[in-house]
Amino acid sequence: MGGPQFDRNFGGYRVFCGDLGSRTNKFELEKEFDSFGPLVDCWVARNPPGFAFIVYKHAEDAERAVEELDGRTICGRRVRVEHARPTGNKKGASFGRGYLRQRSPGYR
């Protein structure tokens, strides 16, 4: 797995956090992750739930968070924490876990 990569769309270094419980919220995650350095953003998925992206201002903070939090228990669940990687979407999508949500043809 590669190291942290700067994401211009978010102005920082994105970290993926997976295997979260469906009731995990942004404030709980910020509390766990901000001890490693200043956060730029924290986004928690709701549909489907179970993952989040945390953006650090500095690469070394993102690196430490990945090293120290991967496999730890957060909000009652053992989580995966890794550097976010490019999705491969050529329409300007930033970094993700390789997950692209498809919408049904009739969606507005």
UniProtKB/TrEMBL annotation:
The keyword Metal-binding does not apply. Keywords: RNA-binding. PROSITE patterns: RRM. Pfam families: RRM_1. Residues 85-108 are annotated as: Disordered. Gene3D superfamilies: 3.30.70.330. Residues 13-86 form the RRM domain. InterPro entries: Nucleotide-bd_a/b_plait_sf (IPR012677), RBD_domain_sf (IPR035979), RRM_dom (IPR000504), SRSF (IPR050907). CDD domains: RRM_SRSF3_like. GO terms for molecular function: RNA binding. This is RRM domain-containing protein.
